[in-house]
Amino acid sequence: TYTRESPATALPIAVAGVISGTEQKQLWFRGIANQKIVAEVEAQRVGSKLDPVVEIRSAEGTPLALQWQQAELQGDARATVTLPADGLYVAEVHDLQFRAAGGSIWRLIVGDLPPSSIAFPATLTSVDTSLRTLSRNSISEAVSIRESAGSITIQAGVAILPLPALRTLNGVHVIEPLEGTFPEAAVDATFTATPFLPLFISGRITAQGETDTILLTVTPQQTLNFQLAAHAISSPLRGHLSLSNGDAIVAQNDGNSGVDDPTFNFTVPDGVTQLKVRVRDINEKGSQASVYQLQIARPDRPAFTMSTREESVRLPLNGSRPVRLSVARTSPSFRYTGPIHLSTSGMSSVTIVPQTLAATEQNQDVLVMLTRNAAGNPDVAADGQSLTISGTGDGSASGFSAMVSLDLDSVPTNALTLADDALVTGPADPTPGTILLDAAPPILLRGLPTVLPVRVLPVTEQTPQFVRFEMLTTEPVRLEDPNKPDSPRKPGIALNEFQFGPVSQGVIGLTVRVPTDTPSSAIDVAISADFVTQPLASGIGSPAWTAPTTLFIEDAVTIAPLAEVKGTKAGGAIITGTVQRHPSYDGEFTIVLDGVPKDFAAAPAVVAAGQSAFTLNLTIPESATPGEVPNLTVRAQAASGSTISKPAAVKVVVE
User: What residue ranges of the chain are covered by domains with CATH 2.60.120.380?
Assistant: First the structure.
């Protein structure tokens, strides 16, 4: 839009679009000597795949400022420069490795921009919140924001840039004045009235060596959880948190020397009604942006949280789409094990299944199905409309709920960067068919493939000829090396690759592969079907989905504990044992002895279909050392070579 021949002359200015591969997007502008210019790119904060780099150059190509992957901008970039002379300049955006995924969205804003990386306070209260954005050396003008029923509006002020991700946290909020510090009066942290809403204290460490001190009124013999958020809200503060009874420090934590945010639990001693909590930087540093949020709560308070890791979702008219929800029921600061009742609001044409999550003591990942009724107005949905998934726990306590908000726009109109509990969603084309499971869900057996029959039903006479399948699950991601975030993923439960069939076939058997080392005992799954004119073609219309269903995972074979075996060099050793088969597995397999030392030998033992006993003959060499043969285990192995049981230890002693 703004080229070398037709540059922008009035700032600030913004441009937006999509970028792919090695493309470089430019915004040309005129500037004057000593003018401060900021170029900020917004991409990853709104779910884009772009790994952005932003650069400011002179018209001759001289680099003036370059930035990429700034943690405080959640991976986006912001470059700042004071222009050396009057003239023409250019701001440019490209992918860090010049490999931008197709259709990656971006927005570039250029001008004398306010800070955008950190918000103070970092949460919205139940009333109007006066919010400012901060950098290490500057503070923006105030913006007044109001949250109501999941909808956020700016009441006063102007947000030139997207505001940092904000959460509405239900509790009591205490906010340090921008000028000054906390009052000397004690803050109520007695937590005696249900539902024991947590206390949130927002503050800043602005000067070198500064320490914030907050006096608390507490309840004797009550256990409290203290959590300081600094890393979590992109603050440069490396927090140290301490608790004092009078002059004596009774608890403290520095978050592993500043690597993590500090937290601890403390039980108030009998007879103690006041404590002092102190916050400082472990390096005695401070800045305008060194903000923190301290949460104080009862660990037994009834609460839960819901979030989603999905980046976007499209809701077809008169169709459905699963959404994966992560439900945290237990944490250091809350616990709730009862049922959770789900509902949607904001769009009357959207419903959710299931409407109740059963009681459990475990944190859980679940698939819920959103269905958009044909009675809804597609034009309204296309213009953008808020949709919220709400979860409510049983009990009379007010405010005992959690929400996941879905913003119906490619870029949220409320100018807020997406938080972890928000995903971009919008309307989609109708689906040309529907699918459903054609039998009761099978039990999956580790190491063995399973067939899942799916019935395909065309909706119109124009339904394409073929259907291609994929599967969404709630199985946790497992890494080859859990200590390396970029380590390759271990295989998970999934459909065999590239499964398709003709729509006219009606029922199609889908093969599900189940890794031997799958630790999950149950997962939610949903099958999707793209309707295509030929197997490699793009889908026509929106995909169809089965309703989410739970699949249980068990062992095909369990080896009974093995008795100690004694052997000799001349006669070897005979290992006998039995197995217990899963009721649904009756096939032939072998028993394999692992850990066999050099010069020892043991051929696998075949266990015929329907049988449960086995015998392994272990040959012992003349060179064997008398005593126990270490690290011997046996396991069951299918004809395909996959392991279908857990290993069982066996003790063999050479006499």
Answer: 13-111
Q: Say which residues have a Cβ less than 8 Å from residue 352's Cβ, sequence separation at least 6.
A: 342, 343, 344, 368, 369, 370, 371, 389
Strand ranges, E, within 564-637: 565-567, 573-581, 589-594, 601-602, 605-607, 613-619, 627-629, 633-637
Q: Token digits for 643?
A: 């392991």
Q: Map tokens 């690759």 to a residue.
A: 497
Supply the DSSP string of 529-575, one letter for each residue.
EEEESSTTSPPSSPPEEPPPEEEEEE-SEEEPPPPPEEEBTTTBEEE
Which residue's structure tokens are 């392994």?
616
Token pair for 240: 């140290």
Q: Residue 612's CB: how many other CB atoms inside 10 A? A: 13
Other CB atoms within 10 Å distance of the CB of residue 634: 25
Alpha carbons 562 and 650: distance in angstroms, whole number: 6
CA atoms within 13 A on the CB side of 131: 35
Q: Where does the chain hold its CATH 2.60.120.1050 domain(s)?
A: 118-297
Q: Average pLDDT for residues 74-92, to the nearest whole number? A: 93
Q: ∠ CA 46-107-153 to the nearest 5 degrees?
A: 60
Q: Which CATH superfamily is domain 557-654 in?
A: Immunoglobulins (2.60.40.10)
Residue 322, both tokens: 């699963």
Residue 555, both tokens: 């062992």
Q: What distance in Å separates the CA atoms of residue 107 and residue 583, rounded to the nearest whole number?
A: 58
pLDDT at 378 over 60: no
**Are 553 and 444 contacting, i.e. CB atoms less than 8 angstroms apart?**
yes
Q: For residue range 280-319, what is the model confidence (pLDDT) as tens digits?
A: 999 999 988 899 999 999 999 888 888 877 656 677 777 7
Total Cβ atoms within 10 A of residue 121: 24
pLDDT value at 236 more than 50: yes
Q: Residue 113 contacts by C-beta under 8 Å, 6 or more apart in sequence?
A: 12, 38, 40, 160, 161
Report yes or no: 588 and 607 within 8 Å, Cβ to Cβ: yes
Residue 161, pLDDT score: 67
Burial 564-594 (b: 16+ CB within 10 A, else e): ebebeeeebbebebebebbeebeeebbbbbe
Per-residue model confidence as pLDDT tens digits over 157-178: 776 666 676 667 778 899 898 8
Q: Are strands 143-148 and 129-134 parallel, antiparallel or unpaired?
A: antiparallel
Which of 607, 508, 593 lies closest to 556 in space, CA to CA?
Answer: 607
Q: What is the CATH number of domain 307-412+420-427?
A: 2.60.40
pTM of the model: 0.71
Q: Would you state the CATH architecture of domain 13-111?
A: Sandwich (2.60)
* pLDDT tens per residue across span 533-552: 998 888 888 889 999 999 99
Instruction: Domain 118-297: state its class.
Output: mainly beta
Residues of the chain with CATH 2.60.40.10: 433-554, 557-654
Render pLDDT for 318-372 as a digit per residue (tens, 0 to 9): 778 888 888 989 999 898 888 988 888 766 678 889 999 999 999 999 999 988 7
User: Hey, what are 380's tokens?
Assistant: 């309204």
Q: Are residues 541 and 620 in contact, defined by beta-carbon separation less than 8 angstroms?
A: no
* Span of 79-83, 318-322, 613-617 with lowest mean pLDDT: 318-322
Domain 433-554, architecture per CATH: Sandwich (2.60)
